[in-house]
Amino acid sequence: MERMSERGEPVLEIAGLSKTYGGRGGGVRAVQDVTLTVGAGEVYGFLGANGAGKSTTIRMLLGLIAPSAGAIKLFGQDLRHGQPPRKVGSLVDGGAFYPFLSGRRNLDVLARTQGLDGSRLDALLAQVGLERDGVRKVKGYSTGMRQRLGVAAALLNDPDLVILDEPANGLDAAGIQEMRALIRSLAEEQGKTVFLSSHLLNEVQQTCDRLAIIDHGVLIREDTVAGILHEHDVLRIVATPIEAAHAALAPNWTCEIVGAALNVRAAKADAPEIARRLLAAGVELFSLAPHERSLEEAFLAITQTETADA
Ligand SMILES: Nc1ncnc2c1ncn2[C@@H]1O[C@H](COP(=O)(O)OP(=O)(O)OP(=O)(O)O)[C@@H](O)[C@H]1O
Ligand SMILES: [Mg+2]
Question: How many angstroms does the Cα of residue 55 sit away from the middle of ligand 2?
Fold first, then answer.
């Protein structure tokens, strides 16, 4: 429970959230019993493949569709009891804009309908990198430009909680980097809480403090990025003959030969003992070092284990 004290008050609490589309029993179980909590000031990633249930969850958080079961609290208040007590901004489906109006004019219209004054528009456009293109008609925008405008729209009301469905969609490499910096600054400089979904592992790994992995509607892991990367300590060994190294360690550790190396599931503290056994077995040892998994390896390992267990 150490983590609880490190992060702030819960801003978003989801408990047992489920959504089934279509007919009773025979419908699509898009989200199943998802429970998670996001603390104030966190950037929280909701990671999953296409069709995993990310957008469905986000639509429920925003009150756009009704859950089949479960509860959602925003700033401590149940969503069923009306408007959240603090402001929420969101981006879903890249935002909906009038194609024949400029990006700036679209924001202006949105601000007016929300009863906001338009004094922040230029600052917002600059913040999302549309200072030059804000005057152009949205119909001429690229996907990435539309996406940036969508993020500007999400920030229009200066929200405390920002919910973004796939903010990196359609952005090029430079755009993704800018988006990442923008999202980090929302949390670090403006104290906002950000909940974002993504199917891009790399994106979540570099942007978020914590993440949940959703697979076929089921939340299968929730942890810090570091926690997921270091879930299983792996030592990578280069030795010859590699088969002899495998034979020497396999009785005590889970081992796998990967190319010319041997991956051993063991903590760093086991390294001296492992080295002794290898030498005792007459193996020539060239290197023995901790191996850090990429989030991609971790993600595949986690989703495959869960699928195999199911
Ligand atoms: N309106 C709907 N009616 C019926 N089924 C739906 C509807 N919306 C989504 N689904 C189904 O629910 C599941 C989850 O979809 P969802 O859009 O939430 O996934 P996602 O994680 O956002 O995927 P993507 O990365 O492709 O955006 C999918 O099987 C999808 O086909
Ligand atoms: Mg989606």
Answer: 4
94: CA distance to ligand 2 center in Å?
10
What is the homologous superfamily of the domain 2-224 according to CATH? P-loop containing nucleotide triphosphate hydrolases (3.40.50.300)
Domain map of the chain by residue range? 2-224, 234-292
Amino acid identity, residue 126? A
Interacting residues of 41 by C-beta distance below 8 A, sequence separation 6+: 7, 8, 187, 191, 192, 193
Q: Is the CB of 55 under 6 A from ligand 1?
A: yes
Residue 52: CB within 6 Å of ligand 1? yes
Nearest of 64, 55, 155 to residue 110 by alpha carbon:
155
The answer to whether residues 161 and 11 touch, using CB atoms and an 8 Å cutoff, is yes
Q: How many CB atoms lie within 10 A of CB 178?
A: 17
Q: What is the mean pLDDT of each run of 10 residues along the chain (310 residues)?
A: 52 97 81 96 93 96 95 94 89 88 95 87 93 94 91 94 93 88 92 94 88 92 82 86 96 90 90 95 93 70 60
**Ligand 1 within 6 A of 51 CB?**
yes
Q: What does CATH list as the number for 234-292?
A: 3.30.70
